[in-house]
Amino acid sequence: MKILVYGCGVIGSYLIHKLCEAGNDVAVVSRGKWKEVLETKGLRIRHKLSGRETVDHPEVIETVPEGMCFDIVFSVMQGQQQKLLLPELAKINTPLVILVGNNPCAAQMEEELLSLSDIGKTVLFGFQGTAGVREADFVTCVSLGGSMTVGGLHREPDADIKQKLMIAFGDTGYQLHWMDDMEGFISVTG
User: Which of 83, 85, 89, 163 has the fewest CB atoms within 10 Å of its CB?
Assistant: First the structure.
């Protein structure tokens, strides 16, 4: 699967790692010094609990070329940063956008993203339980096997989307939990 990830902090880095581990064609939008680190050294993660280190080599891009298609786009950043990114996300040729993180304005963001897009999209929200710190050229990460709670504002993803996401994470051990009210979930966890 061709997957794009915006956001390469701790949570985004771990997500990218799992998507690469599953064998996907993963691209990450990165700029500045971190882009240079990813291009020269790869995405290095020190997994605190297991004591191992992984290195992945996703494609690193500064901007999404016009017309480039993706099966899934993940945006992994703080709510205000995601809000500023909505016009860019709307232009991407993808059927599925997942906004990952605490987002107190989820309904407004979904509405704005859909109104800006000429391409029909499904917008879902995700919450991944990962912690750590991004250092100068690597990420230290704490995650108990990795999991994400995913859902729409007031609905679970349909069977086709669930299947697509399960395929995206393959046999990596990453667990997906389905939620039928992410707006309520985000309000409680945010």
Answer: 163
pLDDT at 171: 94
CATH of 2-189, one of 2.30.30.60, 3.40.50.2300, 1.20.1630.10, 3.40.50.720: 3.40.50.720
Give pLDDT, residue 50.
87
Q: Is this prediction's pTM over 0.90?
A: yes
Q: Which letter does DSSP use for residue 49 in this model?
A: T
Collapse the DSSP code of 180 into the 3-class scheme (helix H, G, I; strand E, B; otherwise coil) and give the result. coil
The answer to whether residues 139 and 130 touch, using CB atoms and an 8 Å cutoff, is no
Q: Compute, in degrees rounded to 10, the torsion defined by CA atoms 97, 155, 160, 146.
A: 70
CA dist., res. 18 & res. 119, Å (int):
28
Domain ranges of the chain: 2-189
6 within 8 A of 74, measured Cβ to Cβ: yes
pLDDT tens, residue by residue, 100-144: 987 778 899 999 999 999 989 999 999 998 999 999 999 999 987
